[in-house]
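sry for the spam today, last one i promise. C-alpha cells for design, 306 residues
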C-alpha cells in the first residue's frame, strides 16, 4: 500500500487553488451520476480529492465525446499536460492543474490517468465490440482506473482491493452502457456486444428507435445480468475497508444496485426515457450495503438489489 504522503510530483509544484473544489458545472455533472461522487458525509479533503479526479475524468470524456474538431489532438494535449505535471512543470490545462495537490498528497501514479486518456482515444477509432470479453477489455481502460484512483485517494491500495475494484467499476460501466444505448448510438458507438445482438436477432436500427424493441430489451437485460454478477463478485471490497473509504465505496456499489433495479423496473426500455435510480432507492441501497458488509467476507451476494 502506498501512503498518501509521497508523490512523484515535485514538492514545490504550484497549485492553483481557485481552480479546485466544486465548480457549478462539475457539481451538476456529478449530481447526474448513478452514485454519490463525493458525498458530504466525507471530510472536505476527501471530497476535494475525489472531485479533482472526477473533474479530470469528465474533461477527458468531454474531449473524446463532445468537443468539435480534432479530438485526438485534444486528447494528446491532455496527455502532454499530464507529462508536465509528473515532471514537476506547470500544466497548461485547468483540470490538470487542479490535480496537482491530489496527486502530491495521495501519491497517485500517472498510469491510471493515462489509461483514461487511452480509453477516449480508442473511442475515436473503435466503435463496436464483438464479445463481452472485448467490452471488458475496454472497461480496463475506461472504468477500472477510476477505482484505482479512489483507492489512492483514501490510501487503501492493495492487490486484492484493486482486483475487487475492477469488478465493481466494470459493472458500473456496463450498467451505464445499458442506460445510454440510444445516446451512444447517435455518437456512432455501440457498446452492446455484436454477438449478443445477432443471437437476439436485433438489428442496429433498433438502437435508434423511439422505444426499445423486445429483442433489444433482451440484449440489455443480458448485459445488466452480467453487470450484476460482476458487482456481486466485487462488492466484498466494502468489508475490507473502514471509515470514510468504506462509506464512499459502499455508495458506489449502492449506485450500481439502485440502477440495476431501475432498469428492471423500466423493463429495460432504455430508449423511451432516461432510466435513472431514484434518490430514495439509492439511499436505501447505500444503507443496506453498509449494514450488510459490517465484517470481512459478509455475503452481500445475497443482498436484494434495492
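last one done:
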Amino acid at each position: 500500500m502506498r501512503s498518501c504522503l509521497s508523490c512523484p510530483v515535485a514538492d514545490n509544484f504550484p497549485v492553483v487553488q481557485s481552480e479546485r473544489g466544486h465548480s457549478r458545472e462539475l457539481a451538476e455533472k456529478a449530481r447526474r451520476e448513478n452514485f454519490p461522487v463525493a458525498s458530504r458525509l466525507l471530510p472536505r479533503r476527501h471530497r476535494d480529492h475525489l472531485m479533482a479526479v472526477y473533474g479530470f475524468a469528465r474533461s477527458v470524456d468531454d474531449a473524446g465525446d463532445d468537443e468539435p474538431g480534432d479530438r485526438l489532438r485534444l486528447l494528446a494535449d491532455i496527455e502532454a499536460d499530464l507529462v508536465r505535471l509528473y515532471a514537476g512543470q506547470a500544466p497548461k490545462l485547468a483540470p490538470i492543474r487542479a490535480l496537482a495537490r491530489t496527486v502530491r498528497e495521495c501519491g497517485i501514479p500517472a498510469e491510471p490517468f493515462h489509461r483514461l486518456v487511452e480509453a477516449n482515444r480508442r473511442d475515436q477509432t473503435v466503435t463496436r465490440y464483438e464479445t463481452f470479453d472485448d467490452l471488458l477489455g475496454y472497461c480496463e481502460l475506461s472504468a477500472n482506473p477510476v477505482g484505482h484512483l479512489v483507492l489512492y485517494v483514501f490510501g487503501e491500495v492493495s492487490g486484492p482491493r484493486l482486483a475487487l475494484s475492477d469488478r465493481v467499476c466494470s459493472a458500473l460501466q456496463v450498467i451505464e452502457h445499458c442506460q445510454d444505448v440510444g445516446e451512444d448510438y447517435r455518437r456512432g458507438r455501440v457498446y452492446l456486444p455484436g454477438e449478443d445482438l445477432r443471437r437476439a436477432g436485433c438489428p442496429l436500427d433498433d438502437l435508434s428507435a423511439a422505444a426499445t424493441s423486445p429483442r433489444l430489451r433482451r440484449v440489455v437485460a443480458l448485459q445488466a445480468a452480467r453487470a450484476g454478477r460482476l458487482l456481486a463478485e466485487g462488492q466484498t471490497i466494502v468489508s475490507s475497508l473502514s471509515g470514510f473509504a468504506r462509506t464512499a465505496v459502499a455508495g458506489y456499489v449502492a449506485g450500481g444496485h439502485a440502477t440495476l433495479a431501475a432498469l428492471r423496473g423500466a423493463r429495460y426500455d432504455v430508449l423511451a426515457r432516461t432510466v435513472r435510480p431514484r434518490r430514495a432507492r439509492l439511499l436505501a441501497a447505500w444503507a443496506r450495503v453498509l449494514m450488510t458488509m459490517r465484517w470481512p467476507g459478509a455475503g452481500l451476494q445475497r443482498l436484494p438489489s434495492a
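The two ends are 33 Å apart (CA to CA). ok im logging off now
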